[in-house]
């Protein structure tokens, strides 16, 4: 396995009285796409939010690029190079597409070459550049959310269910953009329920169940074994 950019060791996260993460341990190899898989409600989104610092780990250690970030604030994690695409998109609906992108750029102005690449990956961004983000379709909002995280090179991209509820044509566009990001050597940790998308993009897989990791290995190994999918997730994901 490649050098780990991110490592979680025995992470425990509580939300109110609920014990969501019950000792999660796994690593994200540098320069690879790691898929975080499992049934709904097993702790995948909580894991991403804990890594970003939106929820604080009660126990355990988070190590990012050689530094302990367990108690670091969200701003410090962002400055360290972690970008986050939440499941709820996290865009500013009252602002224009342009204003959303400018706010996402560290220096307040996106790099022109990077912006052109994003326009080629997501043509709708150029079309609706001056439009209010809240008026976009669901797929266009998701594109904007991902583009905001991609506006600058990040050491790590945390992406939570980017294709959820999207039409096949939009999913194809999304996968194409994420594949290009992967080819550029990006490190990605992604939650994804669409198994065909996970299979197309993933190098490694981490499967969770009931707040713990139950399996880690090559995405190809999981994709090739219906029996393994059924044992780990309760069903064959090939049908989904």
UniProtKB/TrEMBL annotation:
The record's SUPFAM superfamilies line, in alphabetical order, gives: P-loop containing nucleoside triphosphate hydrolases (SSF52540)
Q: CDD domains from the xrefs?
A: ABC_TM1139_LivF_branched (cd03224)
Q: Provide the GO biological process annotations.
A: L-amino acid transport
Residue intervals of the ABC transporter domain: 6-235
One example of the protein's molecular function in GO is: branched-chain amino acid transmembrane transporter activity
Pfam families under this entry? Answer: ABC_tran (PF00005)
Query: What is the residue range of the signal peptide feature?
Result: none
Q: Does the keyword field hold Nucleotide-binding?
A: yes
Source domain of life: Bacteria
Provide this UniProt record's keywords sorted from A to Z.
Amino-acid transport, ATP-binding, Nucleotide-binding, Transport
What does the sequence similarity comment in the record state about its family? Belongs to the ABC transporter superfamily.
Listed PANTHER family: ABC TRANSPORTER ATP-BINDING PROTEIN (PTHR43820:SF2), HIGH-AFFINITY BRANCHED-CHAIN AMINO ACID TRANSPORT ATP-BINDING PROTEIN LIVF (PTHR43820)
Q: What is this protein called?
A: ABC transporter ATP-binding protein
Give the organism, scientific name.
Pseudovibrio exalbescens
Organism phylogeny? Bacteria, Pseudomonadati, Pseudomonadota, Alphaproteobacteria, Hyphomicrobiales
